[in-house]
From TrEMBL:
Residues 5-245 form the ABC transporter domain. It comes from Lactobacillus hominis DSM 23910 = CRBIP 24.179. Signal peptide: none annotated. The lineage of its organism: Bacteria, Bacillati, Bacillota, Bacilli, Lactobacillales. It comes from the Bacteria. InterPro entries: AAA+_ATPase, ABC_transporter-like_ATP-bd, ABC_transporter-like_CS, ACT-like_dom_sf, MetN_ABC, MetN_ABC_transporter-like, NIL_domain, P-loop_NTPase. This is Methionine import ATP-binding protein MetN. GO terms for biological process: amino acid transport. Its EC number is 3.6.3.-.
Amino acid sequence: MTAQIDLQNIDVTFGNVKAVKDVTLQVEKGDIYGVIGFSGAGKSTLVRTINLLQEPSNGSVSVNGTTLFKNQKLQISKKQLQEKRRKIGMIFQHFNLLNEETVLENVAFALKHAGLNDEELEKRCLHLLDLVGLKDYADHYPAQLSGGQQQRVAIARALANEPDILISDEATSALDPKTTNQILDLLYDLNKKLQLTVVLITHEMDAVKRVANKIAVMENGQIIEKGNLREIYLHPQKELTKQFVGGALEAQHILNTYHLESVSAQDQLYQLVYKINDVTKSVVADLDVALNTKASILYGNVEVLSGEAIGTLAILLKLDSEKQKQAIKFLEEKNVVVTKLDKGVLTDD
Ligand SMILES: Nc1ncnc2c1ncn2[C@@H]1O[C@H](COP(=O)(O)OP(=O)(O)OP(=O)(O)O)[C@@H](O)[C@H]1O
C-alpha cells in the first residue's frame, strides 16, 4: 500500500544547523502517528515539510500519491500547492485564533476561498462547531473561552476545508492534564469518524500512548526508532525510547532527587514491561521468592495500549552481575521484557 504521507531522506539545514537529517517517514491513511522527542529534536521542522511550510534542503515529499517536492524543488505549481495545503489541517500549541472575531468568524476565516454564500457558510461553520462540541459558542469571542475550548475552535477551523490529514504541533502542551485528554480523545474520535490521518507532535509520551497507533522517536534531527506503538513499547531499542516508554524518567528522577542512601554504583535499574494477561501474580514477588532479590520498585504503572493492558515497572536490583543475569533470565521466561536502564547521574561505572 502506498503511504498517504511519504517523506524520503529529508534534510533541513538552517545555516550551519542541521535541524533534520536524512529522515524517512511513511504515514498510512488512518494512522495516528505520534512524533515524540525533546525540545529542539527537529519535530516541528520535519512535519512542516509535509505541507512545505518548510522546504527540505534535500529529499522528497509525497502526499496522497502526488510528489510535491523532489530534487530540491517544488514539483507542482504554487496554486496547486495552495490547494494541497488546504487538505492538510494544522493545529498549534497557542491556538492562533483571531481575538477580535467571534468563534464562528474564526472558523469561517478558513473558508473565505470556498465561494459559499452567507447562509451556506454559517451552516458549514455550525456543523464544524458541532463536531468539536461547541455549537452553542458560535457568538462567543476567544477570550471568553477556556484553553481547551479555544483549541476546539482551532480544530474546527483546521477541519473547515475537509482535510484528510491533520497535523497537531504540540496542540495540548498548554493545557492541563484533564483538558489534554479531552482534546486527544476528540482527535481520536475525528480520526475514526472522518478517517482523518493525524500526525501528532509532542514531547509527552502519555499523549502518544493515549491515541496513537504508531510512533517515531526523534533525537538530534533524526528518527532513531519508529513503528507500531505496542511493538516499540514492548521492545524499545534506543536509550531515549526506553526513557519515553516506561517509567525510566520517573525512576531516574527518584534516584537523582532523593539520593537514596543505600544505592551504590553497581546497583542496576531495570525496566520490566509485560502484558497483564501473561502474568497472574506479582512478577517482583515471584522473583524475590525465587532468587531473594529484594528488588526496590521505583515506578509502576498499568495502561491500555491498543486494547491490551500492559504493565510497566522500574526496579532497582542490588545484586552482583551473576545474580542479575539469573534474575533477568527468570523474568524473561515469564514473558517479561527486561531492559537495562541508564541510571542518569548515578551512572559513573
Ligand atoms: N527557522 C529556523 N531558523 C534557524 N534555526 C531553526 C529554525 N527553525 C528551527 N530551527 C532549529 O532547528 C532545530 C530543531 O527545531 P524544531 O523546532 O524543529 O524542534 P522541535 O523538536 O519541534 O522542538 P520544539 O518542541 O522546541 O519546537 C533547533 O535547533 C532549532 O533552533
